[in-house]
Amino acid sequence: MASLFIFAPWCRYACPWGQLMSLVNHHSRLQVRSVGPCSGCGKCVEACSVGAVEPGRVRTEHCQLCFACVDVCPVNAISIEEA
């Protein structure tokens, strides 16, 4: 029922692997961040398999650090930074 309102609720909130990756992400030295103006093409949103990217914004609490959004961004609006 939750999947009608939330993208991949099992993966985001109940899956043990997702919870472990969330903990690792919060304590990682690397972070995916929006650093420039977004062109609004949506390629980053399509590339993100967990729904952590919205146009112009990366939701780090859901990011699994796969860097797929960084690879597909045509204007380099998303980058990897050291925390």
Overview of the structural elements:
The chain is α+β, with helices and mostly antiparallel strands and 83 residues long. The protein contains four helices and four strands; from the N terminus they run ααβαββαβ. 33% of the residues lie in helices and 17% in strands. A two-stranded antiparallel ribbon has the order 1-4. A two-stranded antiparallel sheet has the order 2-3. The longest helix has 11 residues, at 16-26. The radius of gyration is 13 Å and the shape is flat.
Numbering strands along the chain, what is their spatial order in the largest sheet? 1-4
Relative helix content: 25-40%
Largest sheet: 2 strands, antiparallel
Low-pLDDT ranges: none
Q: Which structural category do the helix and sheet elements fall into?
A: alpha+beta
Q: Percent of residues in beta strands?
A: 15-25%
Q: Report the mean per-residue pLDDT as an integer.
A: 83
Enumerate how many helices there are, as a single number.
Answer: 4
The string of secondary-structure elements, in order, is: HHEHEEHE
Cα radius of gyration in angstroms: 13 Å
Termini separation: 37 Å
Taken from the alpha-carbon principal axes, the silhouette is flat
How would the blueprint of this fold be written?
Blueprint: H1 9-14, H2 16-26, E1 30-34, H3 43-47, E2 53-54, E3 57-58, H4 68-72, E4 78-82
Antiparallel strand pairs: 1-4, 2-3
What is shown here, in short?
The protein has 83 residues and is an alpha+beta fold. Helix content is 33%, strand content 17%.
